[in-house]
Amino acid sequence: MKMNLPTIFFYLLSPFTVVASENIAFWQKPNIQFKQEFDWLKLASDEWLKGDIVSMYDEELEFDSDELDMQTIDWEDVVELRSKDVLSIRLVDGTIAEGYLVLKDGKLTLVQYGQGTNYKLSELISIASSEKNERDLWDGYIKLGANFRRGNTVQFDYNLNVGIQRRSSSSRFKVDYTANYSRFEDTNTNVESVTVDSARLASTYDWFFSQKIFLRTMDFEYFSDKFLNVDYRVSYGVGIGYHLIDNSRIFWDVNAGPSYQKTQFKNVSANENSSESSPGLSLGTDFTYEITSDIDFDTSYQVQFVSEESGEYLHHFETGLEIELSSDFDLDITLYLDRTENPHADEFGNTPEKNDYRFVVSLGYDF
Hints:
The chain is mostly beta strands. The chain folds into two domains: 39-132, no CATH class; 137-366, monomeric porin ompg (Porin, Beta Barrel). The protein has one helix spanning 5-26, and strands spanning 39-43, 48-57, 60-65, 69-74, 78-91, 96-104, 107-112, 115-119, 124-129, 138-149, 154-167, 171-185, 192-208, 213-225, 230-246, 250-265, 275-290, 295-305, 313-324, 329-340, 355-366. It is built from one helix and 21 strands.
């Protein structure tokens, strides 16, 4: 029998073809071996990550990957989730439950003492570490901007911003501190002059009432500014907040509430009070837009309505870009504006400027 060249190749390759077909027919996706020292996350792309679940709130999951470090993942991209430790969840109706979390096939289950309890995934508001794992509830940041000049001009400027936060499935506690300082030295006389010296400490405690509403049970602020003639100003308040927009790219909320304020002035004339107290009303808003996965645009604005002697209208505005350099480091470009509608004159009758502007570039570290 005559055999041409293609026929010969067919017979030679046929055993390998059969083997390849058999391998394809019997090939199966490998099973993940869930080791208890890790939390496990499966994405919509069919990829698996192992690491630690940090929290889920505002439709975003924070996951500390064993290989990729801290990742912020849209909740809609989460297909499966398994925890190694007991977690706490909060539901729309205010229910708080704890257990080992398993999310699979659109079903949410908490396992406690060998018993599983199912919950509706659509009613989930947040996930956080259990109260038993107190350390996992805390995170924070530190940002530092500085400027040193030598030569014809001798000047030192710095901006320090530090904050910590404790977030559980039902509440959020925040403390933020900002300090600004600038010193100038005249090279002819060697006389030093301080040109900026201010500090602000703000703290809030929010209780999540529902997916849209939160109660601000504490709103505290301490402020001092030598050049605004404010030795210190202390404000206490409560309020209510509402999430206007809350999705994977945009976060926008507003808050309002009554407050009480006391201001101690640094210098006043002989016939004036050195301090003023006033009830007030506080209004505020926070806005974040995720431009890209590495760049966020942030804006925060707060205004306090107080008595004319205490300043009348007190505005505080921040806006800028946060650029992620790595999983823990950020570059922050921020514009600050503080305005006092009726600043208090000092003992010589000098009235401070109403507006204070600062443009700060700083390096931030998240922990």
